[in-house]
Amino acid sequence: MRWLAWVVALALAAALLAMAASGRPGNVAILLPPYRIDLSLNLAVLLLLLGFVLFYIAIRAFSLLLGLPRAAALFRSRRRMQVAAAALHESIMHLLGGRFRRAERAAGKASEVDAFKPGALLTAAQAAQAMQAYERRDAYLQALPAPARETGTLMQADWQIEARDAQAAQLALRTLSGGMQRRTQTMRLALSAARALHDHVEVLRLATTLRKHHGLHPAAAQAMIHGAALGLIRQANHDAESLEVLWKSFDPALRRDPQIAVAGARGLFAAGQAQQARALLVEALRAPGAEPAALMPALRGMLGGIDANFVAQAEAWVDRWPQEAQALFLAARACAELELWGKAQQYLHKALELCQPDERRLRGAIHAALARLQERIEREDQAGRHWRLAAMDLTSDDSAANSGA
């Protein structure tokens, strides 16, 4: 139907043009002495239009003729860009496919075009690195344009970490600009270098930042933070002042971690700060998800110099964990420290009842505590019985551990 509409439109246009031309009977006379040319007005208008069209075509053709060299240069430039883009694509595919020699050759071809030079040189450097052609690799990095040199430094740091030269990698990463250092890949490389150098302060900072920005798996980040915190506590070397400053710098959630709390408390206790050591463990035990089995054994060894307030706190923990043998054992030790023998004996007997069959070491420790208590109140026969039971539990537990090993 479209062709029929065009035919009708052309016929209508022809009819309108004929009607317009028939209503104009004028003539046009062109005098070129001794000649005279008479034309109808319609023919003169038609010739003028035709002349304008021919003049426009001639001007356009002349302009195209003058622009032929420029068009040819543009064509050659586009062709070079297409060839370079294909070469860069080919080099990347060869690199990912393990064909490093071909990748290097294709990247060298792509680097002839300035627009693709940074990516091509980086690809060639990666291929040379894979072939252990270190001189060619370094030459490619040296030829990088200025805007791409920081990317080259980042790649070089990655290679240095692979070569176990973490110190050189750390120095290279520190030369990067502030914006580059805040990138996730840069922080991951810096974290690897810091871990290799046992730089616990840097590991703690980077792992915390990456976890916050989802740059590391939460479990991996938590493990690194945990290990760095333990390393910093060990480095404090039982220096009370350093430990206190370090503890305040830790995140509250990290201070409530059982292993971190125990390590910090033992460091302070070894430095002669028993009260501060107990305060760390008490703070961790007050957390909603506290683990008494992980915290109370360490606290039992730090009861020298406690007062009645601590006994009240221990009894409150018994109310909080009534089925936890560790809580009862701690309360018993606290009562024994203040010579509250009756309450201590009561808590110890109840702790024995709550011990699980596989808790031989705990049961042996409770029997030993009962034996010492019986000796204090001069019940030698009962003390001897508990010493024998303690020896049986502790010996069987050691035997089981050795057989399992």
Could you explain the architecture of this structure?
With 405 residues, this protein is mainly α. Helix content is 77%, strand content 3%. The protein is built from 22 helices and two strands. Strands 1-2 form a two-stranded antiparallel sheet. The longest helix has 29 residues, at 68-96. 29% of the residues are buried. Residues 399-405 have low confidence and may be disordered.
Note the total helix count.
Answer: 22
Poorly predicted sequence stretches spanning 5 or more consecutive residues: 399-405
Tell me, briefly, the overall form.
elongated
Q: Taking all residues together, what is the mean pLDDT?
A: 86
Specify the structural class.
mainly alpha
Any idea what the radius of gyration is?
45 Å
Strands ordered across the widest β-sheet = 1-2
Number of strands: 2
Beginning-to-end CA distance, first to last residue: 92 Å
- Following the backbone from N to C, one meets helices and strands in this order, namely HEEHHHHHHHHHHHHHHHHHHHHH
- Please summarize the sheet with the most strands: 2 strands, antiparallel
Residues in helix, %? over 70%
Strand content: under 5%
